[in-house]
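Following up on my earlier thread - several people asked me to post the actual chain instead of describing it. Fair enough. Here it is, all 426 residues.
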Amino acid sequence: MKTSNKKSFIACLDHYKQINDLNYFEIMNLLNIINIHYVENKFNDPYFSGIDYENNTNAMKIENTEKNGFYTLFSDSKWNEQNNYDVWKQKHEISINHHENKEEIPRQKVTIDASINNLDDLLSIIKNNVYDEKNEYNIDLKSLTQIQPELEKLNKMIGMKDLKNSMLNQLLYFMQDLHITNKESDFKHTVLYGPPGTGKTEIAKIIGTMYSKIGILKNNVFKKVTRNDLVAGYLGQTAIKTKKVIDECLGGVLFIDEAYSLANNYQEDGYSKECIDTLCEALSDHKDDLMVIIAGYEEDLNNSFFKANKGMESRFMWRFNIEQYNTNEIMEIFKKKINETDWILEDDVVNIKWFDKRKQEFKNYGRDMELLFSYLKIAHSRRIYGKDESLRKHISIEDLDAGYDMFMKNKKKENKMSKMLESIYI
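Reply from S.P.:
Thanks for posting it. Predicted structure:
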């Protein structure tokens, strides 16, 4: 006769109590047993429990010791009593901890050849290596992937070879956290040297967006200000106004365009000095959570802004120079502005000779190209009026020449007005 291997339900529970760490399958088996024995049966069925609470006076009953409980005070329900199983359960009740398998799956190590000489090399790495969180890379490919749009936008900007290389140095330095020593950050404040119309605002925005995406800056905040946003009309108010702007930019970028205007006459202008001193203090106090970018002509900034406070120069450790555009680059900027619209410029309309002859009139580079395009469109509207619809938005050399004439006439008016204003104050 075979011996039965069946265990009673209580014996089964006792068996599991002796096991310190239950694995997933053991836990599921135990829960299944409990479910079969108690959930799918009627608790008060005398055929199951062997006790008829209504008629059996010998059934063990223990009053609930919670004297102030709801059922103790207001109910004579049989559920306000305990049977033998309730007593056993209180003595043997245990907690089952489901220990999840927290062991990390080993990530595959991937080594990427990271020889970088320019932005093209960096973009090639991103395009040729799709980031996979299951892999462990020798470089921060995740961060590079996050800022790919900004890197491409920067790389597509015409010219600026030296500036792009300088920004590449800054990016690689920050991405590897080499700017942090003893949990304290180096200064991130940056100078953009260059004339108007060279894309300084766009560059500052790219810097701010990149560093907010990879965590160097905590917030995607970018605020462009000029002198009027920082300097008040009364002594004492300028510091308050400047601090307010700084507080709004914490965690992001404060961009001060034409920063030399803050200190043109700092020796005589107490308001300017108050602004510069307040700003200088904030550059140190918030070196971890603020990036201030200033822009303007190198000579003007060096002779005014940095002279107004001796501590200012050491706080701007990053200096980026934007070179003046040559004739070909000016022409490419003009073409790019048109190609970004639905206007059509034939290749034979614009040539290097046309721009070389007029280069000296385009001192503001990108801004002047925007103006030239605007005047060109006005001239075009007159030329095609009443003509065939197929001519619409197709730029001709006549449009370009007529637009340039408008550009020059308005430029002379601006120069004349500037001289008149100067004569008033001299």
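The longest helix spans residues 397-425. That should answer part of your original question.
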